Each structure stands twice: as structure tokens, then as C-alpha cells.
TrEMBL record, chains A, B:
It comes from Cyprinus carpio carpio. GO terms for biological process: gamma-aminobutyric acid biosynthetic process. It catalyses: L-glutamate + H(+) = 4-aminobutanoate + CO2. Belongs to the group II decarboxylase family. PROSITE patterns: DDC_GAD_HDC_YDC. This is Glutamate decarboxylase 1. One of its GO terms (cellular component) is cytoplasm. The keyword Phosphoprotein applies. Catalyzes the synthesis of the inhibitory neurotransmitter gamma-aminobutyric acid (GABA) with pyridoxal 5'-phosphate as cofactor.
Length: 590, 590
């Protein structure tokens, strides 16, 4: 075991702050990073402000140590304290926003679960019978951010969702303040209309005539994909709603064998004595969300049939047709095909038109999972990768991924109107006012599997207003250019090997870094075994140092490799350069 | 049709602003309400502040009319503009917060869908190719709030979720700023631990030994209830996960026939020519979320068996036992019973202990839906209403209802550890690092049906820290006292009739207001028909005037009645008095 200095592991200190590191990496970014690290160690009083110049952020004289939640509104005379308290919180948040964009700050200040659970310098997670003062609440807020991960940092490449859009953030603050839900026009008139208009716009962009169809924002891509399977089942076997799965023949679903989403969400535990990272979630999304849907909805996971992919991770249409025929010969009923538009690891786009031909031929519901790749529809340059999407019966599209909308924001769009309602409505028999003289499209509660539904639309609507369609297009084109830059930088660089050949379709760039000690080893099991451990080790050190974060995973018979993605508008070429330098710095002696 | 004046219907003006109304209701509240209404009509410049005294809210000199989203961070030199912009947004939000608690402001400024869609004085919902200036974005923010509903207003009684908790609000602002998700410890270390500790605390309060068990926060009560059905199915028929529903016998579920949740979420369309409100969602939650789960999960809605209730809306245990025996005799397999703790309309608590006896006898999963009533567990005075809850296999408990936590915050708690994981995990085969030396309880992604999951925990954790357990207890006791006050005020008052007799178990008080013109009518169909229209008409006028909002619905053979609930800490006796006065003012001439 390594020793600890002030709660930080010795390992971290030795890797991140020794003189050699400073000398080796003495560019401005790295120097300021180290300085930034030490600056962050300075204790800060609540009343000390970074920005004394801004008159609106003058230090307040309010003493929060004797104030409690009960002193805020609706307490009598609580207004002034409430405003002061909220402004203190905003001060914490705007400082965090500032630092998020500042490359001299760390991406994260990593601690192990047991460290956080034991309590860090006054940050105690335990809940008590008695209230804490507002001063402590402010400290808790500051510490929560301090020990978290800056997902908006220009060097956070770990997830498909990254970045911190300022307009989106403002939208979320407003949404929380409005504190309502999407169930009815009555309690969310503006948000319900915004949702309707935005979904229509998305359907127009998909290419459905006049933007006709239906849709709803759901709590994430997995639920959106689940909606698609439900609606497909309802379309083909509406009696299942009332009679259950027993009323249908054996239904089968099809999706790519390839990993799709959240493979990169690896839960790492840095086992310090061995310096090994252990990936827990080596599961794929085609395997994952469609497989989850198969289990949840009562199909059974063995009735999900996996489709072969080419070397780039794209479904092979001939394999789909062969498996459809095979299933029918066995007496099963194919009802649903998922085509992935932007797989999680490779960023692969399945050939939608060819898949649509087969679906039409055999009367199968075609769903396009564009959770990750749907954003490319906004780009005139890149939308051809989804050619044929207008032939889909339903589409999942997560603006919270490629379009930089804050989490969560995921849409399920359905070409045929009325199916969502038919599938999920429970109320037909209860309508007893015969004179229905209103437009029920304003109601959404009956389309959803939820009752109350979080307002996910406003931030997206506001971002669209503020950027225009062309703003999203620019963002997407730029992210893809950065990926091309990375691809060209490393494809022939010593110590790198690409996982698949050719320019990436999406922003995903998949590669192995091969440390000098492995470069001369002959190909074979020993090299594989050792290479498999490289990415986890480098990732562990990145997190300990807090300098950057990037995902890795294995895929099929390929050992662990890095998967780089760009969706954050704050990223520049220098950040890509930094990542490569950092991988080499941390990996050179492995 | 009535005429329109400046986009507001004549009906509204005549009811809300005529001299007679002012003379009839010339108490301070009403006067200031009217004055407040006119004040709200004054156009406001972005740069005009209500509170010039606060130095932190001095008018800024920034001209946002030539600034765009692209000028904000990460733009070069974007920091200053970003801070100014966010402070402008905060200014809008804090003004909204102030007004929310101000009884002289309206609860809502009602407009019809077509009015909002046509565009209100510069508020245009349409999305364009080109960006809007930040000045317009700020106007959009202000207008979004202006045309919405103040769910935190002390006179908003329309939903089970009401109020605007300042600490919870701060928590939500921080959550949006952190912009991460709950999938892994890696990207949400602090939030993942907070969730774990909070769920354990909730299980302790339920009464499970040492707080052992499992749980997760989900996107609302309907999804939490769906989890309970899924886990019950997995416990009894784990093979369904792989083989589908075909692998199990015909499974049946049981729940109350009584309405439970969201009945009050009536989608109203005010048909002006007839002044009739039409309830669209006359559906119940027992019927609703459990029925939705039956459909979604492949059981089929006809396999949900409804249980008879007593006059207070509580399930009759003998009916459950009879129906279980009957189902078994037909060869069906009873797997799941839902006991409701706090039904939506009556606030009824099913007798959990007696239901648990039957579930144990027949080996059936017992779920307690405490979405609405679970909060009473925090009160030593009222928790007896959930006696036996510790015998449940799973419990739904929505802190976003009775505990005043901002939307959304719903927990599903499961007594047996490992079932959530077993039920939803898709990954077992993919773990290929043999040396798993970490505690997988920190991972949550594999327990959920979602992939990414919104951070719902922080606001709740922060509120608990700031109030302590005793703070929640006081809040709950106070809300129940207010309901008793209302009950005693109207139970013998002329023109009122209680829907059921006796003190309410929860804060729900259900009553008819009978206008003078109906009081002398003999009981019979004509009176029923006319009474049925009273609550919708009064509600329509309330919304037009914007003075207050309260829910109504029919129940079984009972015609439309008001259902009053209190969950907002801002409510006082004077607000209860106001509601009654308002009902009488608006209803006296019907």
C-alpha cells in the first residue's frame, strides 16, 4: 500500500507533482495546472470572493451560522435572508462554472468511497435529526462540487454527454424554479406547448412529411428505446395490452451484437496495491437497453436476436434477413428491429435503408436508436450517415448527448400518430363528459408510462432559440473535425494502434496505446494480457492526478482500448494534444 | 363567445376586476391582489430592478441585444458576459421566488393554448434557424415564468406536490450545474454515496432491521411502482427475465378499486361558450400506475384484479382473500398485492397489517404504494397510519409529494437485497476481470431500467441536512393540522357536504360546494347532474381569475367534488379561509 498525505494518496502526489513531471511538461497549461492544484488547496471562507470587482457579488454581511432553513421563506421576514442565501449559492455555482472552463483546474479531485464516507474535513454525508445551519449548508454545497467530477471541463472526455452549456444551465435553473411537471396543460401550459413544437421540429428534421407523428421526452435513451418496443408490440398485437404476452405468439426482436451505449460507463475501483482498474459495466447498449426492454416488457432476453456486424461495427443486412427467415421458420414472429445510428464505442451507423427494405418486406417495426448519432441530423454535412431514417417507424434521439443539452433530455419520436396514446392510455372508459370539444393533443399524461414527468424540454427549447438550428450544426461539425484531427494525429504515430481502420463515422476514435515495453513483444497471448491492463492503469492514474478522463473498454475479442469522444464545445485541438501527451506521460513506463 | 380585451377573456375581466367584486371582498388580501394584478401589467425593462437596494442586484450596463449564446463561455473572453448573463437570469428567478410567496400576486395568468401558440406580446414559441440575442433569451425566460403556474404559491392546492422549498431549489440549481448522472461512482461519487445513505435512512424509518435492503430513486411514482411489480415477478419467476412471460403461469395482481393518484391532474379545457370544464383524466392511480405496469410488463390489464373498499376508500381485506382464493381456483397465480398508503383522492390508508397477513398466508409479494402517504412515516404522531409497512416487500415513497422536495424525487425501496440487481442486471457474462476486489454496492447502473439516471438525490439530501428529521416531522404535522382546520370549518357549514364522514386520515378533504340555487332541489338525477357541473365551473373561474387552484374529480358514483390537499409549508389558515371564500364568491350564482 502507498502512504497517504493529507487524505491524498502518495501515488497521486508522486505522479502529479514531482519535479520531473514539471520539467517534462513545462508548457503553460501544465504549469498553470500545477499552480491551480495548489491554489485549490487554500482554505476559503464563505465570505471571500474571487471576484470582488463585480458589485453584484460584494461580500455579504449576513451571518449564516445562526440561520436555519426555517428562517427562509415562507418564514415571516424571510425574504431578505432567502435572497442572501440564494445569492451565496449562486456565487458558489458561478465560481464552479468559471473553474469548469479553466484548464488550470483539475477535472476531478478523486477520493475513494471509504474516504468520502469517513468524512472529509468537515464534509459529513450522514443525515441527522437536528438541522444544520445555513453556513454548514453552504459548505456542504461547496464540498459536493469539490469532490465531484467537472463534466463540463474541456478535458473531460469520459462520457457521450459532456460540456456545460450556459444557456442550457440557465434553462435548468429556471425549470427547477418553476417546479412543475408535464402531466397536463393545466399545470405546465408553456412547457407542454414547447414540447409539442420542438418534437414537431425534430420530426421535420427526420424527414417525416410535415413533421407529422407523435413523440414524448422520456427519462433517457433506455426508456425511449423501451417505448419503441412497447409501441411496436402494440401496433402488431394490441391485445397484449389487455391480455398480456400470452395473447401473442413467440415474438422476437433484433439488434446489433455490437456495443452501443454506456460501455464506457466503467465503474472503476482503483485497487492501489495492484494499480488495477476493474471494469464492471462491460455491457453494451444494444445488448443493454434493448435487452433490458426485452426483460422488462416480458419478451425475455433469449428472444432478442443479435445481428452480426462488419469490421466497423455496422450491422450486416444479409444477416438480419437470414435470421428473420430462420425465426419465421421456427414459428417465431419477428416484430422489431433496432438499427443503431451511432454506436457507443465505434460510433457506427447501421445501414438504415438496407435494413428498412428488409423490415418492409417482412412487415417488421423499424426503430432507429439515434440516442448518440441523432444529433448529426442537424448537420447538412453529416446527416447522410442516417440516410433512410425517415423510413423508421420510431426514432430515439438524445439532445443531451451530441447536442450538448444538460442531462436529461431524450426524445422518442413515432411516425404514426395515436400509437403512444393507444399503447399507454388507461382512461378511455372514464371519460364521461360526452361533449369533448377540445384538442387532446395538449395532454401528455396519457401517452407516458409515467404519471408526473420531469420538465426536460425548456433547456433544450431555450438552447435552440439561442443558437438557432445553424448553431447546433456548427457545434456538430466542429466536434467531428476535432475527431478527425485526433484520428490523423495518432493513426501513424509510434506507440498507437487503431482498433478499426478508416476515418471515424462519428466522433468516436478507438485506439490502443502500446507502452515501449510492449512494442517489441511478439503478438500473442502474453502481449494481449499485458495490453489489456494498460488502458485501465492509465485511466486510474489520470483519475488520481485529475488531469483528464477518457473511457476505455474491451469489445468482442479485442482487449481494453481507449474510446475517445468529443461532444463538448469547449474542447480545442490543444486539449486533444494534451490527452495524447498525458497518455504517453502516464503510460510510458508501464 | 365572450369578447376579448388585450388577449384576456372578457369573462375573466368581468369576474375578477369589476367593482362589485372589490366591494364584496374588500379585505386586504383581495385589494392587494387586484393591485398586484395591475402592477403585473406594467411593462418591465430588463434593466429595471425591483430591489435597487441590494448592491448585488444593481442594474448592469451590459447590453445583451448584441450578444449571443456564442459570446458566452467557452468563447474567448466569454467569462464576464457569462457571469453577467447568469446573474440576469438569477435576477429573474429570485424575483419569481419573491412573487411566489407574495399573496398579492396571482397563482397563474391563464391563457388558452391557441393564445400562447399565436404568440403573446413578443413571446414566440417557434424555433428558428437563426439565433436570438441574449436580450430576447432573457425575455423568453421571463415570459415562460409569466405564463406558467406558480406551484409554490400559498394558494396553489391543485397537486399533491406543491410549495417551493428554498433549500431544495438551491439543491436543484447545484444539481444542474454539476450536470452528471447516477450511473457510476466514477462520474457521480458524491451523489451515489448520498443516495445510498439516504435510502438506508428511509429503510430504517420504514422499520427494516438496520436499514438493510435495497432501493433506487426513479423518475416518479409510476416507475417506482413498476419496479415493484418487476421485482415481485423476478422473485417468484426469475426465468421470465430470460424466457419471457410465456415461462410463467397466468399471473394476477391486486390493487384497490379506489382512485389513488393523479385523478386530480385533470386536463381542463375551458369551453367558453358553455363555461364547462371537461376532465380528461378521470383515471385513478391504482387503476393507473399499477394498471400501466400490468400493460407495460406484459401481464395484461385484465390480470389486474380490483379490490373493494370501504366508505373511506380503504381496501377490505376479506375481499382480497376471497379474490385470491378465487384466482387460485381458476388456476391463476397471485403474485403481487399493492396496498395504498395515502390514496390520491380520499387520502385513504389501506390496513397494511391485515393485508400482510393474507400475503404471508398465500406467499404473495406485498407492495406498499406510499407515494403520497409515505411522508407520514417521518411523524411520530401520524406514522401509525402505516402500521405494518415494515412487513412489505417493497415500498414506494415520493419525497416530492408530502415532504415538499422539488420534482422529481421518488424512491422504490426493496426489503430483500440483490433482487433489483438480479432483476435488471444484463452484464453478468461480461465481467472478465477475475479479481473483483471492490464493493459493487456503489454501482447503481445495473439496478436500474435506465442507463443514465438523473440526479434526484442531492436536493433531498440537502433539505434533510438543513431541516433535520424533526424539520420534516414538523412540516407534516402542520399540514395535517391545517387539513383538520379546514375539515372542522366546513363540515357543518351551510352549502357544504362532505364526501365521506370523519376526520381525514391524510391532508385530503373532499367536499361538495352546493350553490344556493341547488340547495332546495330534491335529491335526484337533476340535482346530481347540476352538482356535477359546479366544481368544474368554479375551477374554470378560479383559473381565469388566477386567484387559487384546487383539484376536483368524480369518484365511483359520486359526482364531481373538490379535493383539497395541503403539502406546501407556505399555507396558513388564512389561505384556507381564502379558498372557502373564493369558492363561495365564484359559486354563489351558479
Amino acid at each position: 500500500m502507498f502512504g497517504k498525505i493529507g487524505g491524498r494518496s502518495f501515488l497521486s502526489s508522486s505522479l502529479c507533482n514531482n519535479t520531473g513531471f514539471l520539467q517534462k511538461n513545462n508548457n503553460v497549461d501544465d504549469k498553470s495546472r500545477i499552480v491551480g492544484f495548489f491554489n485549490e488547496q487554500q482554505p476559503k471562507s464563505i465570505l471571500t470572493r474571487d471576484n470582488e470587482r463585480d458589485p453584484r457579488f460584494r461580500r455579504t454581511e449576513t451571518d449564516f451560522s445562526n440561520l436555519y432553513a426555517r428562517d427562509l421563506l415562507p418564514a415571516k421576514n424571510g425574504e431578505e435572508y432567502t435572497m442572501q442565501f440564494l445569492l451565496e449559492v449562486v456565487d458558489i455555482l458561478t465560481n464552479y462554472v468559471r473553474k469548469t472552463f479553466d484548464r488550470s483546474t483539475k477535472v476531478l479531485d478523486f477520493h475513494h468511497p471509504h474516504q468520502l464516507l469517513e468524512g472529509m474535513e468537515g464534509f459529513n454525508l450522514e443525515l441527522c435529526d437536528q438541522p444544520e445551519s445555513l453556513e454548514q449548508i453552504l459548505v456542504d454545497c461547496r464540498d459536493t462540487l469539490k469532490y465531484g467530477v467537472r463534466t463540463g471541463h474541456p478535458r473531460f472526455f469520459n462520457q457521450l454527454s459532456s460540456g456545460l452549456d450556459i444557456i442550457g444551465l440557465a434553462g435548468e435553473w429556471l425549470t427547477s424554479t418553476a417546479n412543475t411537471n408535464m402531466f397536463t396543460y393545466e399545470i405546465a401550459p408553456v412547457f407542454v406547448l414547447m414540447e409539442q413544437l420542438t418534437l414537431k421540429k425534430m420530426r421535420e428534421i427526420i424527414g417525416w412529411p410535415n413533421g407529422e407523428g407523435d413523440g414524448i421526452f422520456s427519462p433517457g435513451g433506455a426508456i425511449s428505446n423501451m417505448y419503441s418496443v412497447m409501441v411496436a408490440r402494440y401496433k402488431h398485437y394490441p391485445e397484449v395490452k389487455i391480455k398480456g404476452m400470452a395473447a401473442a405468439p413467440r415474438l422476437v426482436l433484433f439488434t446489433s451484437e455490437h456495443v452501443d451505449q454506456f460501455t464506457v460507463n466503467l465503474f472503476l475501483l482503483l485497487h492501489l496495491s495492484h494499480l488495477i482498474c476493474i471494469p464492471l459495466q462491460c455491457c453494451s447498449q444494444s445488448h443493454y437497453s434493448i435487452k433490458k426492454a426485452s426483460a422488462v416488457l416480458g419478451f425475455g432476453t433469449e428472444n432478442l436476436i443479435l445481428l452480426k456486424t462488419d469490421e466497423r461495427g455496422r450491422v450486416i443486412p444479409a444477416d438480419l434477413e437470414a435470421k428473420v427467415i430462420d425465426a419465421k421458420q421456427k414459428g417465431f414472429m419477428p416484430v422489431f428491429v433496432n438499427a443503431t445510428a451511432g454506436s457507443t464505442v465505434y460510433g457506427a451507423f447501421d445501414p438504415i435503408n438496407e435494413i428498412a427494405d428488409i423490415c418492409e418486406k417482412y412487415n417488421i417495426w423499424l426503430h432507429v436508436d439515434g440516442a448518440w448519432g441523432g444529433g448529426l441530423l442537424m448537420s447538412r454535412k453529416h446527416r447522410h450517415k442516417l440516410n433512410g431514417v425517415e423510413r423508421a417507424n420510431s426514432v430515439t434521439w438524445n439532445p443531451h448527448k451530441m447536442m450538448g443539452v444538460p442531462l436529461q433530455c431524450s426524445a422518442i419520436l413515432v411516425r404514426e400518430k395515436g400509437l403512444l396514446q393507444g399503447c399507454n392510455s388507461m382512461c378511455a372508459g372514464y371519460l364521461f363528459q360526452p361533449d369533448k370539444q377540445y384538442d387532446v393533443t395538449y395532454d401528455t399524461g396519457d401517452k407516458a408510462i409515467q404519471c408526473g414527468r420531469h420538465v426536460d424540454i425548456f433547456k433544450f427549447w431555450l438552447m435552440w432559440k439561442s443558437k438557432g438550428t445553424i448553431g447546433f450544426e456548427k457545434h456538430i461539425d466542429r466536434c467531428l473535425e476535432l475527431s478527425e484531427y485526433l484520428y490523423h494525429k495518432i493513426k501513424n504515430r509510434e506507440g498507437y494502434e487503431m482498433v478499426f481502420q478508416g476515418e471515424p463515422q462519428h466522433t468516436n476514435v478507438c485506439f490502443w496505446y502500446i507502452p515501449p515495453s510492449l512494442r517489441l513483444l511478439p503478438d500473442g497471448e502474453e502481449k494481449r494480457q499485458r495490453l489489456h491492463k494498460v488502458a485501465p492503469k492509465i485511466k486510474a492514474m489520470m483519475m488520481e492526478c485529475g488531469t483528464t478522463m477518457v473511457g476505455y473498454q474491451p469489445q468482442g475479442d479485442k482487449v481494453n482500448f481507449f474510446r475517445m469522444v468529443v461532444s463538448n464545445p469547449a474542447v480545442t485541438r490543444s486539449d486533444i494534444d494534451f490527452l495524447i501527451d498525458e497518455i504517453e506521460r502516464l503510460g510510458q513506463d508501464l
